[in-house]
Amino acid sequence: MIGKMRQGGFTLMELLIVVIIIGILVTLALPGFQRSMEVSRQAEARAMLGNIYQAERAFFAQQGSYATGVNANSNPLIAAIPQENDNTQYFYYTVVNDATGFLVQAFRKTTGGQQRTGRAPTWTGSDYRIVVDANGDFRVLGF
Q1: How does strand 114-115 pair with strand 129-133?
Q2: Which CATH number fits domain 12-141: 3.40.30, 3.40.50, 3.30.200, 3.30.700?
Q3: Exposure b/e, 17-34, CB count within 10 A at least 16 = b
């Protein structure tokens, strides 16, 4: 009796179905992953704003006034604030202050109208920013 021997392995149809299933799973998981990455970047920005806030308060305690800008000459405590041209950060920070208070802002970086990471999340605008004032009040603007 000479019969047809089946060789081990998967058929093309089985492989195609597996690839389609993996594609569907990736499509479902990707938005959640992007959102969690954005949330972690915002947490990093809030932490940096908290550090800047503490540095401004410490500078005020030492000097009796707030620093006049974000540079090492006016406030050595906040000399390490990431600047707009720092490509390792997703936010850049500005400090606007006078003798009575200050406002620290973290702006979401953009390139050509798109978020730095490529596709902009639908729940943030290109002018998205996080703000903390001299009272320690955090606000999120630009939704």
Answers
A1: unpaired
A2: 3.30.700
A3: eeeeeeeeeeeeeeeeeb
Tens-digit pLDDT profile for residues 21-31: 999 999 999 88
Q: In whole angstroms, what separates CA 133 from the centre of its chain?
A: 20
Which comes out higher in pLDDT, residue 141 or 122? 141
CB 106 within 8 A of CB 124: no
Rounded-to-integer distance, Cα 58 and Cα 54, Å? 6
Residue with structure tokens 């953009």? 110
State the pTM of this model.
0.65
Domain boundaries, the chain: 12-141
Contact 122, 140 (CB under 8 A): no
Average pLDDT of 69-87?
Answer: 63
